[in-house]
Amino acid sequence: MKFFRFSKDTGQSVERYESRSVIYSRIAQTFTPARIGFMYVEPEGIIGIHEAPTPQLFLVVQGEGWIRRQSNAKVVITTGEGVFFDKGELHESGSVLGMTCIIVQSDEFNSQIIVL
To answer: Matching InterPro entries, A to Z (predicted)?
Structure first.
């Protein structure tokens, strides 16, 4: 499990295409097709412990929650932060107040692109 941030302060200014006041934060590149989904974790919601079916990015775009491996302590994760799970990695997540996430799954990520 690798934690990273994709918040505004990790990005770069976009100046191409006559752009202004835009920040872009690169997250990852995949070499194989990717599945991208949106997940709403309601207050007191839990995604039970399970193996990541493929390498997976878990990106919090709103709210706050927690992540943990098997029996490890919960680690708080909030808007603008993400976690990368390797295929087969056991993990659990949830939220006290609720959070909205984007989940990206692909059989092959260029992990050097991930902002750590």
So the answer is: RmlC-like_jellyroll, RmlC_Cupin_sf
Count of domains for the chain: 1
Contacts of 78 (CB under 8 A, 6+ apart): 60, 63, 64, 65
Tokens of 9: 């302060």
pLDDT digits (tens, 9 = 90+) for 32-62: 899 999 999 999 999 999 999 899 999 999 9
Cα–Cα dist 12/8, whole Å? 8
Measured between alpha carbons, how far is 60 from 80 in angstroms, rounded to an integer? 6
Environment class of 112 (CB within 10 Å of its CB; exposed 0-12, middle 13-18, buried 19+): exposed
Say whether 108 sits in a helix, a strand or coil.
coil
pTM: 0.82
Q: What is the CATH number of the domain that holds 107?
A: 2.60.120.10
Q: 18: domain range?
A: 2-113
Q: Is the dihedral of CA 99, 102, 105, 106 positive or negative?
A: negative
